[in-house]
Amino acid sequence: MAASLMKVGESRVWINPEEIEKVESAITKEEVRRLIHEGVIAARAERGISRGRYKARFQKKSGKGSGSKKGSRRRGKSGWVAKIRSLRSQLRVLKTKRVITRDVYRRLMPMAKGGAFRSISHLHEYLESHNLARRR
């Protein structure tokens, strides 16, 4: 009855061992409610998921700073999206400033999509080495 009143499972109901006689004599819901209010009957805390294993693993990893990591920082789809957006916008800027011709722009766009350029600086190196930039 106490479990249903407190809206918890029967295993979470705690009864004060010193007041067992009071609890045994309680028959009605009102009496049980009064005992809950007095603190003779209480609900135990809900058991959660232990984070002990996670904390131990995190502590082991805490010594590994950015200096011990190898390879590029940019990873996965979000890194690719950031790179391709910057390359495409740079190509548009170069076309509007008339640094590259429309034909060169249309040749470089699919190359950027195919992953030919690592960065904007790499794109500029490519333009210089292949003499694709217009002379002023």
What does this structure look like?
With 136 residues, the chain is mainly alpha-helical. It has two domains: 2-43, 50s Ribosomal Protein L19e, Chain O, domain 1, CATH 1.10.1650.10; 76-129, Orthogonal Bundle (Non-ribosomal Peptide Synthetase Peptidyl Carrier Protein, Chain A), CATH 1.10.1200.60. It has seven helices and two strands. The chain has a two-stranded antiparallel sheet with strand order 1-2. The longest helix is centred in the middle third of the chain and has 21 residues, at 76-96. It starts with a helix and ends in a 7-residue tail after the last helix. The model has no long low-confidence stretch (mean pLDDT 89).
The CATH topology name of the largest domain reads Non-ribosomal Peptide Synthetase Peptidyl Carrier Protein, Chain A
Number of domains: 2
Mean pLDDT: 89
Strand content: under 5%
Structural class: mainly alpha
Quaternary structure type: single chain
**Can you count the helices?**
7
* Uncertain regions spanning at least 5 consecutive residues: none
Annotation, overall tally of beta strands: 2
CATH architecture of the largest domain: Orthogonal Bundle
Shape: rod-shaped
Work out the radius of gyration. 35 Å
SSE string, helix = H, strand = E? HEHHEHHHH
